Amino acid sequence: MHLEPTARNPPVAPTASPSPPSVRLSHDLVAGAAAGLAADTLTHPLDTLRTRASLPAPRPPLSVRRLYAGLPAVVAASAPASAVYFATYAVAAEALTSREGKGGEGIGGEEDGGGLGGTRREQGGRDSPPSLPAAAAAGVAAELSAAALWTPAEVLKQRAQAAGCAGVAAGDYASLRTAVATAVGGPTGLRGLWAGYGVGVATYAPFAAVYFSVYEAVRPAATGTAADKDDGDWGPRLAAASTAGGVAAVVTCPLDVLRTRVQVGGEGVAAAVAGLTTAGGWGEG
Asked: Using CA atoms, how far apart are residues 182 and 187, in angstroms rounded to an integer?
């Protein structure tokens, strides 16, 4: 939330009619939850391939069932985590842009702040987009708030995806119930569900900062409109979001490989770094 964050590649929601801030925030929560669940479900097979590519050989043959391994954990966590993610981005971006004297309500660069992807507030009859620093900082805040919900789901999902691969923590991850019991029953107890929390934040906070900064910088050129205007056309905005997601993924790929090794293997960061350095596998994911 990030293909992760998924919540980590935020889509763009349609324009809504003007409404009070509390209503806009509730719209952000609902839209974020629905968008995150849809994106995570549709891209799950690709995420499985990413997880397997981040792990050392041998890897078992792929099958349709293996491509969708770990999906129940995603379904359980995606909606609430995405709702928290987008709502936090809305609140943080509004607060930061207000301090800068630019303003912004909601997520998405919409006229009333009702969409996902950037904030703006009407000012003198015109809309003002967030500054790049404000967009980056709001993205980091969103990741920090949602990470507590995402991490357990990531641990369970990735261990199910990596079943049969080398370096996977021992246990039964075939179903959500047995996966939770295995993770909690390990030597670290309940903390096992939050394995890799720190490196996950270290991965997706920069991802969000890069994503929202690039999105806000590219969107005006992609839409062919001024930075303070938006014609509501989905195509160019999706192109801007794809560009931003691609740039952010390239920048954070080494950290993402490390995060996967830590969460799948249940080993510490130092051991994972040593293994990657020895194998020369920092770019495998």
From this structure: 10
Q: Is the dihedral of CA 244, 3, 273, 195 positive or negative?
A: positive
Q: What is the pLDDT of residues 59-85, one digit of tens each?
A: 888 899 999 999 999 999 988 888 888
| Strand 121-123 to 126-128 pairing | antiparallel
Per the document, the length of the chain is: 285
Distance CA 11, CA 99 (A): 26
In this structure, are residues 223 and 230 in contact, taking their beta carbons and an 8 Å threshold?
A: yes
| pLDDT tens-place string over residues 114-133 | 444 444 444 433 345 678 88
Question: What pTM was estimated for this model as a whole?
Answer: 0.70
Tokens 């350095």 appear where? 277
As a whole number of angstroms, the distance between CA 36 and CA 187 comes to: 32
